[in-house]
Amino acid sequence: MRRKRMDVLPRACAGLLLLSLLCATSLCQRSKNNRCVLSRAKSCTECIRVDKDCSFCTDESFEESRCDLRENLLRYGCGEASIVYTRGEMRTQQNFSINTALQRTQVSPQGMFMRLRAGEEMSFNMDVFQPLESPVDLYILMDFSYSMSDDLDNLKSMGQNLAEFLQALTSNYTIGFGKFVDKVSSPQTDMRPEKLREPWNNADSPFSFKNVIRLTSNINHFSEELRKERISGNLDAPEGGFDAILQTAVCKDKIGWRKDSTHLLVFSTESAFHYEADGTNVLAGILARNDEQCHLDTNGTYVYDTKQDYPSVPTLVRLLGQHNIIPIFAVTNHSYSYYEKLRKYFPISEIGVLQEDSSNIVELLRTAFERIRSKMDIRADFIPKAMKTEFTSSMYEKTESGSFHITRGEVGKFNVRVKALEYIGGQHVCSLPEKDRQGVIHVKPTSLSDSLKVTASVICDVCPCEQQQEFNSRKCSFHGNFVCGQCMCHPGWRGDTCDCSPASSPNNEACIRPGDVEPCSGRGECLCGKCQCYSEDLTQRFDGAFCQYDVLQCPRTSGFLCNDRGRCSKGACVCESGWEGPGCECPMSNDTCIDSRGGICNNHGRCECGRCICDKASLYTSSTCEISYSLGFQAVCESIRDCVRCQAWGTGNTKGNCSTCHLQIQMVEELKKEEASEYCSFQDEEDDCTYHYTLEGDPTVLPNTTVHVQKKKECPPGSFLWLIPLLIFLILLLGLLLLLCWKFCACCKACLALLPCCARGRTVGFKEDHYMLRHSLMSSDHLDTPMVRSGSLKGRDIVRWKINNNVHKQGFTSLAAANPKDLIPYGLSLRLTRLFTQNLVKPDTRECEQLRKEVEENLNDVFKHIPGCHKLQQTKFRLQPNSGKRQDHTIVDTVLTAPRSAKPEIIKVMEKHVSHEAFNDLKVSPGYYTVTSDQDAHGMVEFQEAVELVDVRVPLFIREDDDDEKQLQVEAIDVPTGIAEIGRRLVNITIIKEQASSLITFLQPAYSHSRFDKLAKIPVLREIIDNGKSQVTYRTRDLTAKNGRDYIFTEGDLVFQPGETRKEVQVPLLELTEIDTLLHNCQLKQFAIDLLHPKYGAKIGRYPQTTVTIADPEVVDGVPSMTGLSQVSQSPKGRLSAPLNPNAHALSSREIRFSWFPPPGKPLGYKVKYWIQGDPESEAHLIDVKAPSAELSNLYPFCDYEMQVCAYNAMGEGAYSDIIHCRTLEDVPSEPGRLAFNVVSSTVTQLSWAEPAETNGEITAYEVSYGLVNEDNVPIGPMKKVLVEDPKKRMVLIENLRESQPYRYMVKARNGAGWGPEREATINLATQPKRPMSIPIIPDVPIIDAEGGEDYDSYLMYSADVLRSPAGSKRPSVSDDSEHLLNGRVDFSFPGSGSGTLTRTTNTSYHQLTSHMQQEHRVLGSSSLTRDYSTMLMGHDSRLPLGVPDTPTRLVFSALGPTSLKVSWQEPHCEKEVQGYSVQYQLLNGGEVHRLTIPNPSQNSVVVEDLLPNHSYIFKVKAQSEEGWGPEREGVITIESQVDPQSPLSPVPGSPFTLSTPSAPGPLVFTALSPDSLQLSWERPRKPNGSILGYMVTCEMLHGGGEPRNIYVEGDNPETTLTVPHLSENVPYKFKVQAKTTQGFGPEREGIITIESQDGGTFSQFGGQQYMREEVYNFPTEYGTKTSISHSSLDPHFTDGMLMTTQRVESASSTLTKQVTKEFVSRTVMSSGTLTKQMERQFYEA
Fold first, then answer.
1. pTM of the prediction?
2. CA nearest neighbour of 1606 among 1617, 1596, 1593
3. Per-residue confidence at 1542, pLDDT binned at 50, 70, 90?
């Protein structure tokens, strides 16, 4: 007994501990969800700003947290009057109801007022009415470039057609007209005087925008004015339509827009558009941003076109919405795709294809207007930053663009939600300026001038009690201010009354409870004589004057502390209102004690603690002390049944002896309705009548029980009783006739058919005749095909069916080519005579295991008599829906492996035993079986009586080699049991295979594993075609290896999530049994693994199955060796042969497991040699291991390795095995290369980055984040993120940045292993020099609007999709002055060809303060060679002779094709008349000089033919007057064609990289040569992706200071060495090296180095150097080159792309050093020549 008690004690303690933990977790969780308490707000105002539900208690005696939810403060004892709680308010200011009789748009209400707390949301309903017909203002804005001349001619003749169209729409209309071309500046417009006067014959001067015809209802005036118009023209293809749209919107009065009309703007053009920051002038920093104001003069001409930039797309969307203008884009096929994308950014807009001559414009407008009439957009303007709005409707559906599909003529119901935000940019909204917290929101539906005005503000009031504080209050010991019921102590004082100073002496005695030793019971800290109890997870765990109470130790109810209806305080529960009791378990109300009559406990008890305590409790007393027969109603009825019959009618078992019954019988005509639900009903056996009665009172006290009996019984009619014997006789006679027919007729079915009732019979057949299935949508390998029965449903019919695969192929039934002895798996299905339970689908349950064993034993015993049959495998259980009355019976599916020739016998055995309803002791249901082979299936289904439909479970024979469209045919053969005839006999099934989204396959067709491995790990790979989810099933099957003896059967699903490419199947291997060992079983043990049932669009790839060979260990001379594989005889003289079956698989991104089987003999160990694939084997690593496996670690991620192994013994090394290949897994990439900024303006920048130095896999995406930071580089707002899913586009253009504000930019890369680290940079655009782009077409990069609000968060648009010239256009894109270049390089898409790029590179230098000769060495971005140019730099005093022309002011190149271009220039300034020009050009790398003389001074362009594509040319143009030739204008140009992959062009550093650029160079190795110079060396990139032309080396001080040096080194060697002089001691430098090919510069390799001096140390350039290297190999001398850099005081500054070096080739050392480091390695190089390094042993792919 004592031991029993001791056992119970730990269990009880454990239970209490668990309960305590659960309660503590619950308490903690509740507090964590309470933001008010967690805020620990110290003041009232601070509290009510935490959350919209927070309140503050000002009661002086309140001891709990003062900042809490209002209900909690009331619960904890804070009075209602002491709670400060701010409520939001909303009221209607103006509301005139909608009058549908008025034919104008209306909105209701018209004014609302609301004040909201931060985080609060309010909503109200808004009604909007749009009449069936409303006024229309139609303004046509037309492109007047020369190509639109035929369109203008047609429009002039359509005045009457337009009038008829408008009159059909509405009787109240106006129409206007405007025209636009482009900015009258270069390069958009030809600025030659004669072209400005008349750009084309019979054309007007160029202009930006003109309002030609103000909106008018006079159609005749419109037509007359339109006929006066002439076409104009410009140069480049994109037009300045955005300027025109903006002026049309903001110049409301000058255009003539009316207040209550629908405003339609028709924009007609055939070209793309310019937009903000894409023009030459703004990129050069000339033009300011668009001010969004009206700038039309009295003639309607836009006069600010040359003073400000084009507007942006978000600006147009906002302004058109504010002015209720709906755009209709009427564009030609050339530009349709651009405007289709643009249209999506407008809530309501339409687009139509304009014919080449605009002849269909009226029909286009009619179609567009019909679509617009059914749409309405609701927008909110002038929203304060602290507010957010949302609109919904229960009446109308919302479109993708946010508008609603409406019905005109009815009042639409909408809901408006306004929410006050809590935080903006990391700061509380109440800290924002007042203008950002309040304002008047204009809620306006489209085409409505009137709007609903919502006056909204965020409540940021100060608590009233804080304005009435007592300074130096007596309540605070004169050491603090009394505010809102609490003391706010002065500095240096603390405590509730500010009576404690930390400087005062501690007094712990007041904190010690009598009888205790420790202050505060060891649960708190004594401060100023008062205990401050410890807290846990921001909650108070202990309380009391001495912290003697634990808030978790109060009474519990059902495990809940204080019944979760109160809180624990000072050891007792403080209950919420309405609850009482020690554990708050008793409700104070009597609601739970009210009986069905509304009384308390039926007046037979009292209510205590929410429960009735009955005076007399019995079996039939309910919880409210009422008599309830439902508790034992049937038993009561039965117990008094005989007494009721006896006393009421004198019948029954107690007839004649009713005195034993103690019931009070009361006969009634009819039972009361309320008693009808509980009455007794029985049938009297003596007259077959039914009688009813009910009870009143407690049946346990019989004298008090009254029984109400209904007088009238319910009896069957008696007039037809004589028919009963006659019917019985006829039924017997009919049965006798049927028996005779069965006995004497040869065919039962034929006999029954002769009967009149069966003459027509019944039919069975398939419900449908054809099914169409899509392979990618199939989730199962079978189809439940319904079969129906018509006619009489009495009786039972069994239908025999079969299915054939591939019936669409000719001769599909022929199996002559198949070997009858081939073993194939037969799928067998039977219905058992037992009900199905869920345990049967769980293989590990005992019920499933027992039934599986029973099924397999009985079926194996039946099928063992068929020759060649194996035992059953893969037995499973399921339900078959729609299978009649037995559909809840268990279906068993199993697999029988047998010869192909055994199929007829298997079907015969199945039919025989199913008809007998048993397989030995296994009972089965009749009429159901299925036998499935590899190409067909046979089976039976049963229609039980009254069953009309059953499903036939048809296998679909899904194979990887199936045709793209295959057919199966199911046939109902006959009805062996039953009288039904077959109706629809055939059903065809067509399966269509779509293009696979992924291919899943085994890596190899065969593997070998030793039993020592205990686990066979088989890799499964997925080739992703369309990224997404994929799934495949794998399953093992026996070959010569047996399940349970050699391995364990394994089955499951492999689910590949998006981006996953590799999974692994693991099969447990079993050890040899003693019998196998004794019998020396030498049979080769193999099993197969199959990939089956691919889902989600996946397909099985090259290897759908793999064979696994199990190598059995055998003891040879005491050493385990392998049998089962071809043994290799031992080499002569005792040398070992090669290890057997070498196998390798990747464990991780840096580890490979290499295993093998020992060779015959007694090896002492093994030597493993491994190296990177492609490297010479001489660079291999060598390790020595004792076991037949090795873990290769510290490898490069995602790198291909080769390896081999040999065994050795006392005689030496044996033969090496075959070379095995293996690739390591992916690892996350390193940070991207350095960020490059092309500062376009103070608010626009182009950000580009390099590919990570270590991609560690295939890069799939980049993420760009950017946000504002303060002076301390701390974020001051949310970071915006943009996902760039195309890894080739490593560049974004960010617009609308805040001016003069620093931003932090971060970029990270993603591959199959996940996201890598971020590369970040902080930059203020206003402090950076602008490097303007000189073309109006920005490369194909994402454009991001940094100021986009909630409406434009997803505004991401590719500029090349918008701005690319239409194919066949004759207007080339034109560059600006050669001074305005993007790092000296410009790329053009030459018109009419998708494969050509025009690149111009110009390098000029202007030094006007000095006049000395300066030598410049340049590397031009368009040339693979280094050229030297000498330029005479003149000072200010230099003057050209009077009359000699200046340099031509502009040099423009226009590509006309891959071998021709147009060279244009502008006339130079000259005091005398220019007489002609000279154009000279030649290949940049030398060659014949071509000269063209142009004697005509008005000709300022020339077409040059027969140029070489992908070659760089230098052009020089100069002008001549009678005084002589002027200076030349130079320019370098390349027409780059993508057809030639060996293009000599390459981008300059900072430009986007392509996937064909080289990878990063090898690790940087530093060697100190002197205190101010070092030697830098590196290896060739691991993936050069072409011939290496050279390297760009950047050297800069790590912590800033000085100008970065850029050094270009030519050559392609295994290792490159560079000497860098003029360094400083004890200063850390950062070096970056990039490789260059014809395709551009690759990613950088970085390294950090410091040269430290040592006192007294002598330095020798070659002596005393120590190289800490892992390996040293000898190479031929000719591989080494050395480049030294020398500088003088006159050396120019180093700039990107410029080579400032002289190069000489020397004989380098014949020793090659190699060292592998991390990307960032901190090194210190001593002047004595000692090289040290600090690094992690991490390897990566260079």
1. 0.37
2. 1593
3. very low
